[in-house]
Amino acid sequence: MLLLFLPLLKDFLRNQSLVLLMQLHLGAVLGLFEDQRYKSESKKPAVRSIDIIGLGTGPDLEKKLKYAGDVSSGIIFGGELVNSPANVLTPGVLAEEASKVASTYSDVFTAKILDADQCKELKMGSYLGVAAASANPPRFIHLTYKPPSGSVKVKLALVGKGLTFDSGGYNIKTGPGCSIELMKFDMGGSAAILGAAKALGQIKPLGVEVHFIVAACENMISGTGMRPGDVVTASNGKTIEVNNTDAEGRLTLADALVYACNQGVEKIIDLATLTGACVVALGPSIAGVFSPNDELVKEVLEASEVSGEKLWRLPIEESYWESMKSGVADMVNTGGRPGGSITAALFLKQFVDEKVQWLHIDMAGPVWNDKKRSATGFGVFTLVEWVLKNSF
């Protein structure tokens, strides 16, 4: 009987060695990387090369090494976007960075960047309400990946929250622990999907079309800004009473999700540094996952097992929607402190077509490493793995 299992054992060990090689490669590249773009004196890493012994050679290993390199480049790109200060990375600059990805991999990518007037034509009142106070105009980003050859079997969308700075608006962030000085990382969701786009532009999976969507803007304070108590109308016609201007990310995602559904996609994942409540629930290292679709959750959790990024499924408790009802509009944008990450997910669900499978990742905790005072590039690896699992 042992002889019958030896080939299976050999394949298992071989596959494990390939996974180990990928992890070693990623660990070495990312462990040595340090973002020094904004320092007057930059240090070069002391390590010039690394030899990995005992894992053999061959085309499979070379393929895995290339894959690890492609993913690493996406993670570093995403991390650099998050690390960039808000006076450098405005919504316009984020759109330029997305366009650069598309032009670099123009054999598989196209880019469409919408300005405020074009978004107004699409009736994106929820998104534009958030952007109204900023001197830096909003930019709606849409990258489309199509395989270099063959037919498309499945259409996916990745939607990332793109607040390049979040002051909180008139509900300004104040007091200890508000982390207003770190609110450049409130575009971590958009950084993750653009990092994944960069990696996928190099990998070029077949059989899958992917739409990368970001409603980029700043949440600031001015005489033109959105006020608590205002009512805005999203592009699907639903009205929202804004009872808290610091719950702005979901307002931008509302119109981004409607737009994504209109692209004819079958599955959507959105990523957002959405709620402090999720950090309270899961701590700084684990992202919350919300979805009404068990199969999609399974796909994403399997992808995260390969990436090593920690995700935990939390419930979408429909009874909590009672706290989101408004007296003057279809809904309010916050439902209070209890279950804050759940009511946020319930809010997003109102803007997703029932025929589309949808999953929300609240990555407010793992987007940032407090010890290193730097972005983590969280989400890129899991997204790449998920797209590949859907390719044919």
Automatic annotation (TrEMBL):
Annotated catalysed reactions: Release of N-terminal proline from a peptide; Release of an N-terminal amino acid, Xaa-|-Yaa-, in which Xaa is preferably Leu, but may be other amino acids including Pro although not Arg or Lys, and Yaa may be Pro. Amino acid amides and methyl esters are also readily hydrolyzed, but rates on arylamides are exceedingly low
Pfam families: Peptidase_M17
Repressor among keywords: no
Domain Cytosol aminopeptidase intervals: 244-251
Gene Ontology CC annotations of this record: cytoplasm
Family annotation (SUPFAM superfamilies): Zn-dependent exopeptidases (SSF53187)
Keywords: Aminopeptidase, Hydrolase, Metal-binding, Protease
Annotated GO biological process: proteolysis
GO MF, any single term: metalloaminopeptidase activity
Subunit structure: Homohexamer (dimer of homotrimers).
NCBIfam families tied to this protein: PRK00913.2-3
Family affiliation: Belongs to the peptidase M17 family.
Identification of the protein by name: Cytosol aminopeptidase domain-containing protein
